[in-house]
Amino acid sequence: MFPGDNDYIKLTADWLLERTKIRPKVAIICGSGLGGLAEVLDDKTDFPYSDIPHFPTSTAPGHAGQLVFGRLEDHECVCMKGRFHFYEGYSMHKVTYPVRVFFLLGVKTLIVTNAAGALNGSYKVGDFMLIKDHINMPGFAGQNPLCGHNDERFGVRFPCMSDAYDPDLRALAKQTAKEQGLDRFLKQGVYCMLSGPTFETIAECKVLQTLGADAVGMSTVPEVVVARHCGLRVFAMSLITNIVVRDYDSNEKANHEEVLETTALRTEDLQTFIRNFITKIYDNYWVSL
Ligand SMILES: *[C@@H]1O[C@H](CO)[C@@H](O)[C@H](O)[C@H]1NC(C)=O
Q1: Which atom from ligand 1 is nearest to the alpha carbon of 120?
Q2: Which residue from 8, 131, 152, 190 has the highest number of Cβ atoms inside 10 Å of its Cβ?
Q3: DSSP state string for 109-150
Q4: What's the predicted TM-score (pTM) here?
Q5: What would the pLDDT profile of 49-75 be if each residue is shown by its tens digit?
Q6: More confident residue, 268 or 259
Q7: Biological process (GO) annotations (predicted)?
Q8: Which of 119, 120, 187 for mutating ligand 1's site (highest number of atoms within 8 Å of CB)?
Q9: Which domains does the chain have, with CATH numbers?
Q10: Mean pLDDT value of segment 95-122
Q11: Which residues are catalytic?
């Protein structure tokens, strides 16, 4: 990130603050086919990405491209309907631009959802995986969103990542899922990010399993890194939309349609979950937010 980029972030945040009365403490990033999460908000104000100054625009199928401000009960939230992926050709700085905007809007907690393929043999399609840790594979290859000039207004040069996924939020999520009767679908594991857009080869899947990953996808990690850098509390969850192919004799092939079909089936459960979860966050954390 070159010096000056962050002033654009401020311009974007100020532009939004002038156009909505909502002052969100919680931001939600919706994954593939999960844009319906924005529907849980009342009193909505939508901003198409293309209208927001200096904001990137979304190109992936299943990603609508709107920033939605609104209320959940009395709680003010903002939701990214459609996110930016590295495989679309955006730099890691562009991918994570909205997270810094959220920070300047006053957001304290970031909720990230994605669609992921299961590497762990005990996972089933339709399961939810609470992310307890990640493997930043693009980071291994020098693609970390925090590379370059460090702006101290956002955070320190060498941020800690061993505590990236807030344990209290995960505990609240487990409780929420249990109350909703979803606990048998609930897993907790390690998410590995690959850049995509290709799905993994069989040999690559074996590597990732050996490294301790439970699920694999093409998003989330950059946003989480930047959110933790600026001190946001993070909760992230994968919807398991496919089981990765691990057998050379298998006729299964990973495809984007399968991802979208599974998310469509589970959207309602997920929406209810997010609604209950956010209410719980506000009830439990509000004093400290
Ligand atoms: C797969 O997930 C289960 C349940 O979450 C966990 O107990 C197990 O350790 C995982 N297996 C591997 C190989 O990581």
Answers
A1: 1
A2: 131
A3: EEEEEEEEEE-STT--TT-EEEEEEEEEHHHHTT--TT-S--
A4: 0.90
A5: 989 999 987 665 555 688 999 998 788
A6: 268
A7: purine ribonucleoside salvage
A8: 120
A9: 5-246+254-284 (3.40.50.1580)
A10: 94
A11: 32, 63, 85, 87-88, 115, 218-219, 242, 256
